[in-house]
Model the fold of this input.
Amino acid sequence: MEFPILDTQVYNHRLVYLDNAATTQKPQQVIDTLCQYYCTLNSNIHRGAHHLAAEATERYEEVRRKVQGFINARSSNEIVFTRGTTESINLVASSFGRRFLHAGDEVIVSGMEHHSDIVPWQLACELAGASLRVIPFSDEGVLDLEAYKALFNEHTRIVACNHVSNTLGTVNPVRELTEIAHSHNVPILIDGAQAVAHMAVDVQQIGCDFYCFSGHKMYAPMGVGVMYGREEILSQLPPYQGGGEMIKDVTFERTTYNELPFRFEAGTPSVGDVLGLGAAIDWMLAQGLDSISVHEDDLLRYATEQLQQVPGIRFFGTAPHKAGVISFLVGHSHPYDVGTLLDKLGIAVRTGHHCTQPIMDRYGIPGTVRASFAAYTTRDDIDALVAALLRIAPMLE
Ligand code: C6P
Done:
């Protein structure tokens, strides 16, 4: 089995794993890469003169070049390894904030951001005396671009917006959002956590200044992520964390910093996980990013159609351009009750606010049930979800 965990039985049912927006499962080749790393290669990188250290360093830097190609960055200096999207955004908000945010400045975020793309900006704003402005969205879950344009003024310093909403599934027009920001000479950060596993991403085509994502949502191990930053802007930012590797020279009087991208990688990184990320990229490229997109679009259409059979179902996020996420409620039942009953039938979905409380406030609901897809999701999985919902529906009234 390419994904060993998918053989798991849950309460004597076949596991139907529909929580891929939270984290994807890992193919055997990613698991093998981790195992091989710890069996044959484990050592610290960029430091030791010995064979293992040199080999691990070479393999680590090879993945940096692989990521560069994967998102079509201009240079591998623009690829910084982090622990995940959250750390990537915190890095940018903190470093950009210290360099460019001042009292009275404004940061634009969308109303459908994950808390990881709201709170780091609030922290940066708090330090600087700046404030957040929010792009509203329609009932369908589409950003209001006219309202977005109207938010810009001479105080706007940066925009932050997701590529795909983890709760509504909306694919946002990131290229257009970038063009509008740049027409005001304002840089933009794109949170790509929910995009990279589902479509080909080209940061040069989007034109964005920063693009952040997590390995674990794209078949790679947990504990590794990427912050892409356009070299021109990245080179102007102060370091995020201090420590080993990010320095050139240290005295008690003064420290000078290393070059890009090492300036932003303080301390020992998670080398094995980075190699696992490389294996995950190989796996995705072997499937073909376009075939993954086409497959998941088909699942999304099929699921949206089939779920209509469930009495009292209400969808949240019905934008014309969506990626593999369906959020819903059944009648007046609490999402947690639906999730718990589904779990007893072997079906893993996520319930709650999905770390997007402002979206829940926008709709006046406590949370949703969310089914989310990956390359290995099948129509059988969707059928199992629909059958289970039909079975539990009478218990929910
Ligand atoms: N969303 C979900 O179930 P981390 O935790 O750093 O890997 O990713 C944070 C994050 C940032 N932006 C978006 C759009 C996200 O969806 C997430 C993670 C998971 O929806 C866990 S809350």
About this structure: Residues 47 and 53 are 7 Å apart (CA to CA).
